[in-house]
Write the structure tokens for this entry.
Amino acid sequence: MKRLTATVRASEGIAIGRAFVVERGEVVAEPPQGSVEQEQQRFEEALRSSVEQIDALTAVNDVFAAHLEMVQDDMLRESVEAYIGDGASATEAVRRACDDIVAMFEGLDDEYLRERADDVKDVCSRLVANLVGDVRNPFEGLRDGDIIVDNLLTPSDMALVALDKVAGFVTREGGATAHVCIIARNHSIAAVVGLHEVLDCVKQGDLLVVDGGEGVVIVEPDEQTLAEYRMRRDRYAEVRERESASSHERIYDGERFIPVMANAGNVDEVRRAISLGADGIGLFRSEFLYMESAEEPSEEQQYEAYAAAAAACGELPLTIRTLDVGGDKAISWLPFPKEDNPFLGWRAIRVSLELRDMFRRQLRAILRASTAGRVRVMFPMITSVEELREAKLLLDECRVELDMQGIPFAEKVEVGVMIETPAAVFIAPALAAECDFFSIGTNDLTQYVMAADRGNAKVASLCDPYAAAVVEAVRQTIVAAEQSDTECCMCGEFASDSAATQLLIDCGLREFSVNISSVGKIKHRLQEILSK
């Protein structure tokens, strides 16, 4: 018996089954098969085939829309063509271009955006497969109740997997927002990712226990361990059934409705969240449009994405956070200065207020999308009343422009701010007088209050949302909101922690925006607390 432990929580649940270790043929590096022009032609043919395949997949699953943009992206094409021009084969050129783009994504601090590197790998793997003619299904032979074990499972892989047969997933690479984790959570399949030694320890057909909640995989468990985990699996199934029953409930504190909304990073996630019972979208991260493009997305592209998300919400709110990049989250087409302290540098609203034309295009797109649903706009990283007023002024100017052009938009679009700096906490009463709602971003607020970089393992213990100073900052924000009759939500990771729900209710929080997979769990926990 061998016990393996990962540090990433992927998808809760307990699975017991035989290992289906995915066997992939390794593509050997090849020299150019012809002239530069011939290699360019091979690449173009593989590109066309890939576009056709991904386009067909997009009709079934919206997640592939981002892949379609990537495979047609000028940055990828130009990088591949440059490597071919330097003498590389088409296959090798795709690999090198992939490595370059992946390195850019993996250098980002934001976990969600960092893990989009997996999407790049997926697109490039498809290109390579089309170049070498490898179109086999690596999941043939999957049996009922198997646990899939692989280096990495991409969206293209998941499109080939018969999910009704799968008991669990275990991968060597990946993080909590990887596509396999999203699929696993939505289908209540246990998963552990980022288990670096798994392929060295597991062989085809081994009996495995997968504990997704603890990030544990046990290889060939003894009888006592097996019996213990069978009992845990049954208990977990009972809990999940109760939580699932709560996911579509409306939660009330007496007469007051307590919405449990969801955080989403693209339109597909919005649809998924609403289908799972979320009371709206409390955080829609608009930066995915900017990060996945070789140039600034046009107003029309943004409008289409925002309108689709608003339509998916119906009458429920869609809260669009304006562009939150800079310093720690770079954009390939937008040069950022080198900064010694990027978290304290040029980011979020500071970027938008300086690049006003770009900001106007985003605000116009958001206003136009407001005709498709209940759209709200939220400004990140606000540290002064002046910043908020300046952003609101630009929003008003965009309203005037659209009105003069005869372009429709909703009469009322609520305006909110992220409370994620000590400065915002201190001036919360003044901010409340200028906006319609707050959303507390505990991820950044915690690191700023505690002066501890959340990405630095040396000070990880300090970057704790339960710290007394952070809790007091949260409480002060909620009090300021209540005194001015301003809505106050929390969209940081702390809101998704069911162990913190009682504490947050005691602080006065009455609006949550959580990870999609946590909607049912937090609603169930609120029911437990409020029924006492």
User: Anything to note?
Assistant: The mean pLDDT is 88.
